[in-house]
Each structure stands twice: as structure tokens, then as C-alpha cells.
Amino acid sequence: xxxxxxxxxxxxxxxxxxxxxxxxxxxxxxxxxxxxxxxxxxxxxxxxxxxxxxxxxxxxxxxxxxxxxxxxxxxxxxxxxxxxxxxxxxxxxxxxxxxxxxxxxxxxxxxxxxxxxxxxxxxxxxxxxxxxxxxxxxxxxxxxxxxxxxxxxxxxxxxxxxxxxxxxxxxxxxxxxxxxxxxxxxxxxxxxxxxxxxxxxxxxxxxxxxxxxxxxxxxxxxxxxxxxxxxxxxxxxxxxxxxxxxxxxxxxxxxxxxxxxxxxxxxxxxxxxxxxxxxxxxxxxxxxxxxxxxxxxxxxxxxxxxxxxxxxxxxxxxxxxxxxx
Length: 325
Description:
Radius of gyration: 29 Å
Shape: elongated
Order of helices and strands: HEHHEHEHHEHHHHHEEH
Distance between the termini: 91 Å
């Protein structure tokens, strides 16, 4: 019996020592020298196991299970983004870095937002103060004049939190220039100024219920412009009114139609002075390639299906048929 106990104790001791030595080895940094590198956690990645496995496969740690164990014990929820890590860091240092906010933040800018809404997103994700956000709106994004609105391209960005507001503005503008260049050439071939195309696209983005009806809305708005009719679209009036406490794009009222503003297309013919939102590529393409139509009026019913007509009498019929209950 004593012999069995000795064997059991010996085996347990060997296992303990082996585990201890393995732990000591696996917590060490993979390298003694090296520079900091960017390790990116994708925007939809939330699994500590997967993050640990990725770090192991990229050579930042020796053992994924030890890092995963440390993160779980600490209750760390790793925020997707970019982290500056080094292969000279041990597993505890890596866990500590992942416990903090990332050095590069994922930022999603949806299509059709105005500049103020984008500023709110950037300030929240990048930790801007109120004064930094105000500077972005009133200084960093007002020149050149044609870059005042509409060129802060809707997309998913990975932005260093260390960038100042001006650098972020330039980053978004540069991305817009890259994406828009093909459409600018196409607009020129169609004898359309790029600023005209972008302004119209910004309206289409706000007026459409989806990408499918963008070309039709574009055709209707172009018909009105060519006939020197007032566009009479709510989205430009919403832009003129701004946020009065119930959101930037709240439904307009009869009183709103009297607002004295060049963006009030119920009072003024033609396009407004500049874009009213930051449109996506589908809206930009629709502005340059309108659908041929005789329609001058349109409505969306409760299911967001568009109905158009060539005259105002038809518009009234559509309103009675699809909107009046």
C-alpha cells in the first residue's frame, strides 16, 4: 500500500512539475527582440478563444489556452480594433494590453448621415472632447467649400485614436476621392458637374426607401430640374431645419415649409447650395444614371413601395389610394 502511495505521489509530483515548467515556458515572450506591430481584431470578433488562437498563429504568444484562461479569469471583454503589440511581450503583458481600449478603433459611418451625425460617431469612438468635435465641424471640414458636406464617405474605417480631428477629416475626404473618382469621370462624360452629381445623390440617398428606387427617384428629380420646377423634397427641408430636439431627420410640418433657407426646395427652384448628406455609391451612380421616366411626382406607401405619376392629379390619386386610410 505504501508503494502505491509513493507511486501516486511521484506521478502527481511529476505532473505538477511538468505543468509548472510548461506554464513558466508558455508565459514567456516568444522573442527577446522585436518592434511593435499592429494586431487587428475584426469588428465582429468577440470570442476570446478565437482572439487567443489568432495571436498564437501570428506568433505573439506561445500558448493560446493560457491567454484565454487569463482573459476569462479577469473577465476581459476584448474590444475589436487594432492593438500595438510586440513579440517581446509576455502573455501577461498581452492580456493587459487587450484589457484596455484599442489603439485603432473600428468606426462605421452609415449612408445618408449629415456631418453633425458623423461627428457624434467619431467623437464617441475616438474619445473627442466637445471642443474637438466643434473644431471638426467648424474648422476642419469647411475648406475647400465643396468639401463642406457630402465628402465624408460612408464606410467602415479602422482609425488610430491618436489622430486629431483634422487628420480624420482628411482621411475621410481622401477615401471619398478614391471611391468617387470613377463617378466624377462618368459625370463629366455626361456633362454633369461632380458637385451637382454629389448634391443630387445626397438628396436621392435621403429620399429613397432603398437602392432599388434610387434610379427612378433620380429620373423624377432630373425631370423637375430640367423643367425648372421646385424639387419640393422633405429631406432638404429637414436639412435646413436641423435638429430641434427630435432628431435631424424628423418628419416636417406645414410650418417648416415656410423656413427661409436656400435649402428649402419648397420655396426655391433648383438644387440646394451643397449636399445635405453623405451618400453611398448606389445613390451617386443613380444621380449620374437616372431612370428614364415621364413621372414628376412620387410617394412611398406604408410598405416603402414607390408610386409615381406624370402629373399632380395622378399624385393626388396615389395619395388617396396608398396613404389615406
